[in-house]
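Researcher: Here's the sequence for the chain we discussed earlier.
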Amino acid sequence: MPPADPAHPAVAVVTDSTAYLPADVVDRYRIEVVPLYVVLAGRSGREGSEVSSAEVARSLGTRGGHVSTSRPTPGDFVAVYRRLLDRGATRIVSVHLSKELSGTWDAARVAAGQVGEHLVTVLDSRSAAMGTGFAVLAAARAATAGSTAEEAADAARDTAAATRTFFVVDTLEHLRRGGRIGAAAALLGSALAVKPVLHVVDGQVVPLERVRTSGRALNRLVQRAVDVAGDRPVSAAVHHLAAADRAQRLAEQLTARLPGLRELHVSELGAAVGAHVGPGAVGVVIDPTPRAEPAPPPPDDAGRGPGED
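Model: Thanks. This is the structure I predict for it:
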């Protein structure tokens, strides 16, 4: 294996904006993020830079407020892939949210065909948020350490397969409107006035259990995380939309009850996923396959930030 160049790894890693990786991690590993589009109040904008989580939460909190999302175009991916190859990358590993939840994976696959399928490996994480993000991070860490594209892709696959995602929403209506959960499940949750605990299985959002109060729902999230983690070393992430206090309580409980916790990321969901789970949503992602983290890449001599020409 040739020695790694941490500043310019030969294997570049790409994901989409629904991975919700911390900004410092994206910068450190030079991960390229392709944004989804969010449509609200008659305008369309890129998630993060043009449409914020707060805007989505406000819109969904008003009577008749509606938010929709759309995938990046194949052209969006082609532009990123070609830029990376022009800068010296020899291979690209592109990891995305579940194709059961979005057409993003398909857009990336089409783009790879235009650029060269021998140059770009496109992976379906079968998850979303940091369920995808931890897989992306595994690939990026492997690439930074000098691994081949195949090895980086295998690291992403192994992590995606092992990672578990659990979350609670105030209402299933937003998931139902977006077609992310069946109408029967949504109706059942509303009729019984319960807080549904959900998880992601084979790339789909599936009801897991029902509890009566928000407090019990948070407790169940913690217990599910503990059950997955056991005494093993794990990484974890806590997500929320307009529920920072609940997310902080969840993070504190995880820190206290996961003896093998190596890293914990707490972040607000972006507009694209937030549009489907709604305000008040809180979730936890557990990755039981953390790898030793290589030294962070040094900055360029010219001080160019990641993603800049």
